[in-house]
Amino acid sequence: MVDLSFEKRRKLQIYLLATLILVCCVMLVACNGDIYTDVQGNISEPSHFMAKLMLKINEGIGGGTASFGWTVIVFTIVLRLILSPLDIWQKVIARKNSKAMERMKPQLEALQAKFGEDKQRLQQEQMALYKKEKYSMMGMCLPTIITFVVFFVVFAGFRQMVGFQFAKDYKQSYDVFTASISKQIEESDFVDLTGDGVVDEADLQAAGKEGYDFYKGAVDKAQQAVYDDYYSEEQTRIRSWLWIKNIFVGDNWSSAVPDFATVTGQSGFATSRLTGITIDEYNEVMGKVLNTGGWNTKNGKWNGWLLLPVLSIVLSFVSTKLLSKSQGQPPAPAAADGEKAMAQGQSMKAMQWVMPIMMGVFGLLYSGAFALYMFTSSLAAIAFQLIFNISAKIADKVKERKINPKR
Q1: Which of helix, strand or coil describes residue 28?
Q2: Is 173:229 a contact under the CB 8 Å cutoff?
Q3: Residue 292 in contact with residue 257, Cβ under 8 Å?
Q4: Nearest to 130 by CA among 104, 92, 161, 91
Q5: Cβ distance 89 to 321 under 8 Å?
Q6: Can you tell me the distance from the alpha carbon of 61 to that of 66, in angstroms, rounded to the nearest whole number?
Q7: What is the pLDDT of residues 153-165, one digit of tens each?
Q8: For position 39, what pLDDT does the model report?
Q9: Please, are residues 170 and 39 in contact by the beta-carbon 8 Å criterion?
Q10: Chain segment 233-284, per-residue pLDDT in tens
């Protein structure tokens, strides 16, 4: 390790960082098992601690009947406050690096002039100077590690929360549907033709065309009851947020009502999967609800306006730029020529786009709730960074006045 050049050490640190992030992500996915809920039983609440925190906040806001979008905003603020000591620590390390780089700049230039022909000696002197000034290469990588880990931990919580809501919505619709059918049969003139002690669908089938026509009308009334309940004031308030019709569906062109594949976990990112139903049963229960509720009233499409994904990309990029400016950037390796230095600079710029692009992809393809979390988190990070920068400048001025009172 001692004989490695500065450039090779830096590459090795990047590889180790990438490996650490990959291991963390794999562990988080492995620990976030799927939750299967039978439609005949009770809906299992999420087991992920982040999802549990969301549920507690949701219960605290209007007894669980407020828009989940506001729950996401409060959750994000609470999470940022919990992580604020760690956030401050990151910024302190970044500030120390920046100060160290300011002090080292003339010395690095002097070393370049003195040992420019002896590249190995120059690299050794540079590393010794970094160590002396306590310039932390890992300190520069630390924010990236923490950001990725927190991102996937929270994402795992949202996966369960979204799946839980999908299962909860359908279970309630299913109960409304079956209750309506049962009530209509009880109030009908049909008799127990099968001799099983109750008048049910089997008796209607045994009654022939009259029973078939009755059941067809009963299904229509039951579907209307499901529609009325699904779009009741309380249920609509929980799912909607500002321009988004269903916060648990993406702020994009998706239908505001999830289909069978999404609810049963066959598509999408949700990990709470409803079992015990078939696609025909789901489509029958949700017959008047599917393909409704969107901005396009004809087929219910366009759950949102794509605002959150776009804003998430913009704010994430601004946050990344602010963070990179607050850190002292190491100089290009002495062994690098002009083209190589330019290539490294382009690589660094490309890295600044990785997180914003990832935010945009998740915001576009996943739920509006998670996109709202990313937007709020980036907004809070920018505000905190600006406050920290202003506070740091004030602290520097106070310190300078103590050293030089006459100034």
Answers
A1: helix
A2: yes
A3: yes
A4: 104
A5: no
A6: 6
A7: 898 889 888 888 8
A8: 65
A9: yes
A10: 999 999 999 999 999 998 888 888 988 888 887 776 655 567 778 888 899 8
Residue among 143, 164, 101 at smallest CA distance from 352:
143
Distance from C-alpha of 126 to C-alpha of 6, rounded to nearest angstrom: 8
Supply the pTM of this predicted model: 0.79
Structure tokens at 134: 């306590």
Lookup: tokens for 11? 């590459």
What kind and span of H or E run contains 38?
Answer: strand 35-38
Tokens of 276: 């015990």
Backbone φ and ψ for 37, nearest 5 degrees, come out as -125, 125
Residue 360: φ, ψ to 5°: -65, -40
Which of 142, 24, 147 is CA-nearest to residue 83? 147
Tally Cβ neighbours within 10 Å of residue 387: 10
Q: Which amino acid is at 311?
A: L
Q: Residue 187's CB: how many other CB atoms inside 10 A? A: 8
Domain ranges in the chain are 157-285
Cβ–Cβ < 8 Å for 69, 249: no
Tokens matching residue 78: 């609470």
pLDDT means per 10 residues in the chain (407 residues)?
52 59 55 59 80 90 85 93 82 76 77 74 76 67 71 86 88 91 81 62 74 83 94 91 92 88 74 75 91 76 88 82 62 46 49 70 85 90 84 76 68
